[in-house]
Design brief:
Blueprint (H helix, E strand, L loop, with lengths): L10 H4 L2 H8 L3 H12 L3 H8 L3 H8 L8 H10 L34 H6 L23 H15 L7 H21 L4 H25 L2 H18 L2 H14 L3 H13 L7 H17 L3 H16 L16 H14 L3 H13 L6 H17 L3 H15 L6 H13 L6 H9 L3
Helix pairs in contact: 3-5, 4-5, 8-9, 8-10, 9-10, 10-11, 10-12, 11-12, 12-13, 12-14, 13-14, 14-15, 14-16, 15-16, 16-17, 16-18, 17-18, 18-19, 18-20, 19-20
């Protein structure tokens, strides 16, 4: 007999339109309230089964705060016995042929419109993606096969535009492991092997980034190290430099990070595409800013701007760096000046750049807004800082990434010193988690 927790929602409540809408939007506070009102499930039982403090369950049920982490979404779904598809997850292990999960159609009916489910995708929809179909591996890999794998990698990279590492990590890791297996078992020419090694380095970096975004820096560091080894063996200086830049980004020692970032730029080849040069120099600028080296920061930013200025029309850019444009560089410029406590420089450039930045990229925009809020705080503009922080919290709600909340936590702590300001007090009350 399959264990049924005392907090399992009855089928009638799972069929309820309001419940389904709330589950699709990951509005678990409303689900908790409905569970108590309509099924008699107490908040204390929900707290115990979901490993949430009882006072927070009540706060969520009153509409204060949101559940934003992938692991907690999974835990709540299991505790309430909510079928995976209702919250954008893959089928849960307890979903068997005679369970309530299979008394509900896997098709999403009228009460759960497709756009509602897509709105919930930022916290769980991609949990089902590790089952993505892999093409049958050929015994011999030629240039055309590598090109197809590279195109597939580029398509999957687009997931990072809307989903966090909590959702994408297993997808990217699976792709990396698949390519690694092909290198071990398939026959190739030396040139094709080098191309496949370059692809492996690219995939390791993507998987490492997702691990970092998911809050697992040790796994990220290991993948970055593997990407460096693969890029070095492939003789790919650009990806080698990017591997060092990734390592620098998460290195705790600030001086070491700056040195590593400088090493990444030194790895650039003479024919490195413009976006690659801009990417590595802007990451060097960031490392220098964190190390409190304003002159080095300014030189690196200037080099990044020069790289984009020199970009030739029609110049081919690798997909892993093609996202770097003037808006991204302006945002990095503002972030650097914020880190260096130069708000008069940071605020105008961040405000202008973020005005061009699409809200669809919720995780990244929430992160970037956190630096704008920080700059406003440094400038003593408390109300503006509170308004921007509120916007960042709104965007980050439900994103399967630890980084926005980690960035916003110290900002909220600083704002806490100004609780007497009405805008701040309202923000802090609504941000209770």
């Amino acid at each position: 007999m399959i264990y049924q927790p005392p907090t399992a929602l009855p089928p009638g409540l799972l069929d309820d339109e309001e419940t389904q809408r709330s589950l699709a939007a990951h509005d678990f506070g409303t689900v908790f309230r409905l569970a108590r009102e309509r099924a008699g499930i107490s908040y204390s039982r929900i707290a115990a089964e979901c490993d949430i403090k009882p006072e927070r369950v009540g706060s969520l049920a009153r509409g204060n705060g949101r559940i934003t982490t992938f692991d907690k979404v999974v835990q709540i779904a299991d505790a309430l016995r909510v079928p995976g598809h209702m919250v954008g997850l893959a089928p849960r292990p307890w979903e068997t042929g005679d369970s309530p999960a299979h008394t509900h159609s896997r098709e999403i009916g009228p009460p759960m419109r497709r756009r509602t489910v897509l709105a919930a995708a930022s916290t769980g929809l991609a949990a089902a993606l590790p089952a993505l179909h892999q093409p049958s591996p050929p015994n011999h890999i030629g240039p055309g096969d590598v090109a197809q794998l590279r195109a597939r990698t580029a398509r999957l990279r687009r997931l990072d535009n809307i989903l966090g590492g909590g959702d994408t990590y297993r997808v990217y890791l699976s792709e990396y492991q698949h390519t690694k297996g092909r290198l071990r078992t398939a026959s190739t020419t030396p040139d094709t092997r080098r191309s496949l090694l370059s692809l492996l380095a690219e995939q390791a970096q993507q998987a490492g980034w997702a691990a970092f975004d998911r809050g697992r820096p040790a796994e990220a560091g290991s993948l970055y190290e593997e990407s460096v080894a693969a890029a070095r063996e492939a003789g790919d200086g650009d990806l080698l430099g990017n591997g060092f830049a990734f390592l620098a980004y998460q290195t705790a020692d600030r001086d070491q990070a700056a040195a590593m970032a400088a090493h990444s730029c030194a790895s650039l080849t003479d024919n490195a595409p413009a976006t690659v040069r801009a990417l590595l120099y802007e990451r060097m600028a960031w490392a220098c800013a964190v190390a409190n080296r304003p002159a080095d920061t300014e030189r690196a930013l200037a080099a990044a701007h020069t790289a984009l200025d020199e970009q030739q029309h029609g110049e081919e850019q690798p997909d892993w760096a093609a996202w770097v444009d003037r808006t991204e560089l302006d945002i990095m410029t503002g972030r650097c000046w914020t880190e260096l406590r130069r708000p008069l420089r940071a605020v105008p450039v961040l405000t202008k750049a973020l005005g061009r930045y699409d809200d669809a990229h919720a995780r990244d925009k929430a992160l970037y807004l956190s630096w704008l809020a920080d700059a406003y705080l440094t400038a003593g503009e408390i109300e503006e800082a509170a308004a921007v922080t509120g916007r960042a919290l709104e965007l980050s709600s439900g994103v399967a990434s630890v980084r926005p909340r980690r960035r916003l936590t110290p900002v909220l702590a600083q704002l806490g010193r100004h609780r007497d300001v009405p805008a701040v007090r309202h923000l802090l009350e609504s941000a209770t988690v």
